Amino acid sequence: MTLLRVENLKVHYYTLSGIVRAVDGVSLSIEKGEWLSVVGESGCGKSTLAYAILRLVPPPGRIVSGRILLDGTDLLRLGGEEMRRVRGSRISMVFQDPMTSLDPLRKIGDQIVEAIVEHEELDVREARKRAEELLASVGLTSDMVNRYPHQLSGGQRQRVTIAIAMSLNPSLLIADEPTTALDVIVQDRIMDLIEGFKAEGTSIMLVTHDLALAAERSDKIAIMYAGKIVEYGPVDEVIDSPMHPYSKALLESTPRLRGPKRLRYIPGYPPDLRRPPPGCRFHPRCEKALKICSQKEPEPRYLNGRMVACWLYSGEVG
User: Fold this and answer.
1) What's the distance, CA 154 to chain centroid?
2) How far apart are CA 118 and CA 101, in angstroms?
3) Is residue 290 within 8 Å of residue 318, measured between CB atoms?
4) Does the bond joining 60 to the residue before it have cis omega, within 30 degrees of 0?
5) CB 128 within 8 A of CB 145
6) Nearest to residue 178, comparing CAs of 205, 152, 158, 196?
7) What pLDDT, on the 0 to 100 scale, is given for residue 318?
8) 3 state DSSP class of 318
9) What is the mean pLDDT of each run of 10 residues along the chain (318 residues)?
10) Pairing relation of β-strands 91-94 and 172-176?
11) Considering Cα of 103, then 121, then 74, then 8, what sign does the dihedral take?
């Protein structure tokens, strides 16, 4: 059963130097209990997509059009107070840098208690007990409630942000680069923790540039480039037989235990989204570009349960 459906979503940033089309016609869905990873290079619009789902796009950004359906309810039509109740209780988010999402002047316990009391009819004593239970659920000791963020390691701070995000048992957890700046051991523990919540029925949307990390955990994967989803489908199929040239290039630039020792790199840079190239936005960097790729944008095609936006699968040549 579908929990979240995003339909033709567009998010623009209105700057003095032009309009940045950060998310430009994105559509995807997440089933209940499913893990979807959104993968792409930095600046491709992944985080903006995550913020848009929670309606937290910072100025000068604006959701221009589209629909965000949570259990059939369009979040873009909700009032401010209604949307505030959705955040935390229905959809929660783990932000990229725990030091910027935790208040450095307040104890950890107070921050968790505030999140609980704001949404549930519990007194502070009951909420504090819940806070200690939440810290235990993410592998931290109860005495952490009396510590400040600077007294914790990076991995511990990220566990705290996950505890806050899961404090109200949301249906969907959005994790935006949750393992940034963490070593591989701590990274693996954080991902195990998130996977544990999935096993309990929480849907997961992971935003990451790490294709290997996404391949290991996901049910589905969406490859994002220059504000658009270029390939989307079951993770095993996308990883084993990528269809879009950008997906293939990402895989070939990812280290593997087996296979070629020399990694390939993607030539060039992602486009300036104020002035994206005509046609397919990847064509200036694509080894398989056709004449039509620079002239006309490819329409998404659905083949055997997968989506790909590429002229190589259109039947047209030029």
Assistant:
1) 20
2) 17
3) yes
4) yes
5) yes
6) 158
7) 42
8) coil
9) 97 96 97 97 95 96 98 96 93 86 92 88 89 91 92 90 91 92 83 92 95 92 97 96 95 73 82 95 95 94 92 69
10) parallel
11) positive
